[in-house]
Amino acid sequence: MPLLRKIPLSHGWHFKQSTTLNNSCASSSFLPVAGFPTVAHLDLLHHKLIPDPDLDSNEVDCLWVNDADWTYRTQNIEPVDIQPHERAVLVFEGLDTIVDVFLNDEHILYANNMNIEHQVDVTKLVRGRKEASTLELRFRNAPSYARKEWQRIGYKGTAAVDPYERIQPAGERCFVRKAQYHWGWDWGPALNTSGPWKPIYLQVYTSRITGFLVRQETESDLQTATVSMKGMIQGAPADGNTVTVTLVSPDGKPVFQSSVAVSSSQAFECAIPVHRPQLWYPFQYGTQPLYTVRASLPDHDLQETKIGLRRLRLLQHGLQGAEGKAFVFEVNNIRVFCGGSNWIPGDMLLPRFTRQRYEDWLLLAKGGNQSMIRVWGGGIVEDDFFYEICDREGLLVWQDFLFACGNYPGGNAPDFIQSVKVEAEALLRRVGHHPSLAIWAGNNEDYMYAELLGWEIDYSDEHGPWDATNFPAREIYERVLPEACRQFGGDVPYWRGSPYAGKSANDGIVGDAHVWQVWHMKMAPYRDYKKFTSRFASEFGIESAPDIRTLHRAVQDPKERHWQSRTLELHDKGEGHERRYGMYMSENFRFRMHPLKDFVYCTQFLQGEAISYAYNIWRREFRGPGREYCSGALVWQLNDIWPAVSWALVDVDGHRKPAFYATKRALASFAVGMERIITSKPNYMLRSMLPTKAKAEIWAVNGELEARGTKLELRGFDIGTGKELSLSLHGKRTSFTLPPNQSTELLTVDIPSPDTTVVVAYLRHDDASGGLLARWVSWPEPLKYVRFSAESSVDCRIEGEETVVLRSKTPLKGVVVSVPEEEGDNAVFDDNFVDLVPGEEVRIGVKGLAGRKLETRWLCDWETEPELQA
Ligand code: BMA
User: Where is each Beta-mannosidase-like galactose-binding domain found (predicted)?
Assistant: First the structure.
C-alpha cells in the first residue's frame, strides 16, 4: 500500500480585488501572486499597486487595502490518482482570516480564525477527476466582519478613557480571531492583511496518525523521565492493529522500540521510561540534547517529534522578610533569573518572515545574554521554527495566548468561545512539546485593563459564570484555557494573564508585573524602577530612535528628517512620546534633539540608562533561595516590525541600540553594580536642592552554579580633570567568595566630592590572572549637573580587523562607537555604550568593519563644539 502523500498546492496562484476600493485598482483581472503563501499587501507591492508601507507616510496610502476583499485562485491542481481505499484531505495551515473556500465551484469551507489549521476531506471531489481542479479562496475584509460581530455579540466593557492614552481596548478587533496587531499598535502600522498566509497542501492517505501528542515529565531526582505519547489512527486499521513507537536518543541511538496496540476507538498511547536522561538546559547552565519520538504505521505514515527532557516548575513560595510570593522558574532544580525581552511579530506581512530572520533575531537575543523571550499575546503563536530555534539554543519562552489589551467576548458568545477552545487545543498541540516553552499566559494586560477601566472583576469569585458581568472573558482565562492546558499542556504551567497577581492584576508582590508606572501611567522617574521592583517584571521599557540609517530609510524626504517632523512622528506611535522625551531627559541629563543624529543619540542614551538601571537593581534582588525578590526582567521590546522610534532594543534592520548592550552586561554571568545612597539632606527650608549621596553600595552577581572567588578593585576620578582620587576603604575586605546563582552585597564605599567624582568598580578573578569579570562606573546623579571636561575626546584605535580600543583622559559617559553613515552599514560590536575613565583601555570586539573608519559619540559631546563653549 502506498505511503501517505503530501502534495503542496503552491503553484498557479493568482489574486484579484473583489471590491471597488481605490478605483478597483486590482480588480479587472487575476494577477499572479508574488509568492506562496501570501497576503494581499505582498502581491500589491509586487505589482507596484501600493507604495512600500514602511516608508514615509505610505502607511496612510495603503489603508484602503485593509477594507478591501480579495480572491485567491489556482486552476492548476493536477489530477490526483486516488485509490478506492484512499482519502484526500485539503490542509490549510493558515487562512487570514474570513474566508469561503470553493473547490471546483463547490463550497467546502468557511473559516474565521487565522490562528488554526483547517482540514477538509475532499475525496469525493477529486477522486476520478481527469481535469485540473480549481481552488478558490474568497476573503472578506476582517474589519467590517469584526464590526458586525461587535454589533451581534455586543461590547460589554465600559467606555472609559484608556489611562495610558493609547490604543482603545474596546476595539472591533476583539471580535475576530486574527492577530490583534493587524489593527495597528503603538509600535507598528495598521496593515490588516488578508490571504492564504501559510501553506496549503493535499494529503492522500490510506491510514494516517492524527493528534500525535508527546509530553514528558522528569522526576525531582533528575534520574528518570517519562515520555508519554498518544494519537489516533484514521483510515484503514493498522497492520496487526499496532503502531510502532520509537525513542531515539540525542546521539542517534534507539533507546526504546515497541509495538503499541490500537484500541477499538482507533486510539493508542504509550509511556516510555527514560533512565538517566540527558537533560535539556537553558543555555547558561548546560547543553540542549533533543530526543526524537516516532510513531509509525509501517508503509503508511510516520510522525516524529523532537523533545527535550527537563524538569520545569514555576515556584511561588513565601519570601524571607517580604510580602507576597516568589515567581521563579526552576529548570532541572536550578532557579533561573529570567532576563530577556518581549517579542512582537517579526513582520507586518508574515509570509515573508523567513527562517533565517527568526534565526538572526533569536541568536541576537542569545548573544545579548537573554535567557527568556516572551511572545506577546497581541501577535501570533509563532512559526514552529521559532520554538525549534529556542529548543536548539537553550532559550526559554514565555508564551501568551492570543488576547491583548481588550474586552473580549465570553460566555455571552458561545460560538466565539467554541472557536477559542479549538484554537487553544490546536496551539497547545502545535507547540506545547517544546522544552523551551516555560509558561502559557492567558492574555496580555486584560486583567490590568479591567482594573484600570473599571470592568467588574471580583477576584474572590473563582467560579463564575461571568457572562453577566462586563468582563465576560474571564470564562476564557479562568475556564477554557486552563482546561485546555490541563488536557494538552503537559508540565508547562498556566498563568491567567500577563500581568496577573492572584487577587489583583499587577501588584508587584505576587505573580508577574508590567512596570509601566515609568514611561506610561504616572510617568514616574526611571529611578523609581527600584520602588516598583516586582517578583517578575514581564514588561517595562523606554522608547528610543533606531539607528540613523534606519531613520533615513523611513523618512526619505530630506526636509522631513528632523525630530518633530510629521513623517517622523508617523513612525513613532507611542502616545505622548514627545512630552515624555522632554520630561525624562530634562530630569536626567542635558540633551539636544537637533540635528537628527542628536535625537538618535539622546533618546538612545535615555533608554540605555533607564534600562541599565532597572536591570541592575532588579537582578540584585535575586538574592538566593527564599530571597528571590525579583526573578525576572523582560524588557519591552526586543524587536521592531518596521523602521520606527519605539521601545525596541534592536531596530528593524538589526542595529543594536545602546540599551541592548546595557542588558547584555547586566545579564552576563558576572555583574557588579553600584548605587549611590543618600548621606545628608539639604536644609529643610531649602527648595530645589537634592540630597547629597556620598556613599555607594556595591554588590555583585554570580550567575554560575559554582561559588567563585573574586576581588573587588575600586578607583575614583575627578570628572572635570581626570585626576585620580584616593578612595578610602578603611581596611575593608576586598576579596569575596560569591555564592552561586544569586547576588551578594559586597561593601559600601565613601565617595569624596561626590558631585564631581566617578567611581569605577572592577570585579576580578581572585587568582594570579586577575582577569576582569565585570565592571561598573558610578556617576553623580542627576547627570544634568555633571560638568565634563571642555577638552573631552575619545581616542578610538582599531587593532587588527576585529578589535576597537577606546581611551579617554577624562571620565566620559555613554560612549557609542559606530561606522559613519556615509561609509555604509554599521559594523557589529560585541559591546558598546560604555563609560570611560582615565588610564583604562576598553577593548571591544567588532565584526564587519572591513577597513572602514569609526566615529564616537558621548554624553554632551556637543558641548565641546567651540561655539557652544563661548
Ligand atoms: C505593553 C504591551 C503593548 C504595548 C507596550 C508599549 O503593555 O503589552 O501593548 O505595545 O506596552 O506601550
Answer: 13-198
Query: Which amino acid type is present at position 22?
Result: N
What is the distance in A from the centroid of ligand 1 to the CA of 442?
16
154 and 220 co-located in one domain: no
User: pLDDT (tens digit, 9 = 90+) per residue, 65-117?
Assistant: 999 999 999 999 999 999 999 999 999 999 999 999 999 999 999 999 999 99
Q: With cut-offs at 50, 70 and 90, classify the pLDDT of residue 2.
A: low
What is the atom index within ligand 1 of the atom nearest the CA of 187?
Answer: 10
Helix (H, G, I), strand (E, B) or coil at 374: strand
Ligand 1 contact via 343 beta carbon (within 6 Å): no
For residue 183, the domain's CATH number is: 2.60.120.260
Contact 604, 544 (CB under 8 A): yes
Report the alpha-carbon distance of residue 283 to residue 729 in Å, rounded: 38
Listed in sequence order, the residues at least 6 apart from 754 whose beta carbon sits closer than 8 Å to its beta carbon are 676, 692, 693, 694, 780
Within the chain, what is the greatest distance between any pair of CA atoms?
96
Measured in angstroms, how far is the CA atom of residue 443 from the centroid of ligand 1?
12
CA 82, CA 27: separation in Å to the nearest integer?
36
Same domain? For 84 and 149 the reply is yes
**Residues in CB range of 48: below 8 A, 6 or more apart:** none
Give the pLDDT band (50/70/90) at residue 162. Answer: very low
In a domain, 256, yes or no: yes
Distance CA 15, CA 26 (A): 9
Question: In the predicted model, is pLDDT for residue 770 greater than 70?
Answer: yes
Q: Give CA–CA dist 195/70, Å, rounded.
A: 7
Cell numbers for 720: 572635570
Pick the last residue of a domain from 263, 286, 307. Answer: 307
Instruction: Compute the distance from residue 764 Cα to the ligand 1 centre, in Å.
Output: 39
Range 389-396 average pLDDT: 98
Q: How far apart are CA 782 and CA 790, in angstroms?
A: 19
List the one residue out of 819, 802, 754 whose CA is nearest residue 782.
754
Cα-trace Rg, the chain: 29
- Looking at the structure, tell me whether residues 721 and 833 fall in a common domain: no
Last residue of a domain, one of 720, 742, 777: 777
Q: Is any atom of ligand 1 closer than 6 Å to the C-beta of 185?
A: yes
List pLDDT tens digits, range 445-482: 999 999 988 899 999 999 999 999 999 999 999 999 99
Give the pLDDT band (50/70/90) at residue 23. confident
Domains held by the chain: number:
4
- Residues 83 and 160 both lie in one domain: yes
Q: Tell me if residue 823 is catalytic.
A: no
The number of C-alpha atoms within 13 Å of 197 and in the hemisphere containing its C-beta is 30
List 172, 423, 445, 628, catalytic entry: 445
Domain that holds residue 845: 794-868
Q: Could you tell me which of 408, 301, 407, 315 has the C-alpha nearest to residue 632?
A: 315
Q: How far apart are CA 606 and CA 544, in angstroms?
A: 8
- Pocket residue to mutate for ligand 1, from 374, 405, 451, 538, most atoms within 8 A of Cβ: 405
Considering Cα of 479, then 537, then 526, then 598, what sign does the dihedral take?
negative
**Separation of alpha carbons 717 and 723, rounded Å:** 5
- Same domain, yes or no: 761 and 817: no
Query: pLDDT at residue 679 above 90?
Result: yes
Q: Is 188:351 a contact under the CB 8 Å cutoff? A: no
Query: Measuring CA to CA, how many Å separate 78 from each of 10, 127, 519, 604?
Result: 12, 12, 57, 56
Confidence class for position 868, pLDDT limits 50, 70, 90: low
Q: Are residues 159 and 84 in the same domain?
A: yes
